[in-house]
Amino acid sequence: MKTYRINEIFYSLQGEGRHTGRAAVFVRFSGCNLKCPFCDTDFKEYREMTAGEIVKAASQWKECGFVVLTGGEPSLQVDEALINALHHEGFYIAIETNGTHPLPRTIDWVTLSPKNCFVKHAPALAAQKVDEVKVVFDGIHDPEQWETSTDLYLNLQPCDTGNKERNREVTLQCVEYIKRHPQWHLSLQTQKFIHIQ
Question: The whole model's pTM is what?
Answer without folding.
Answer: 0.88
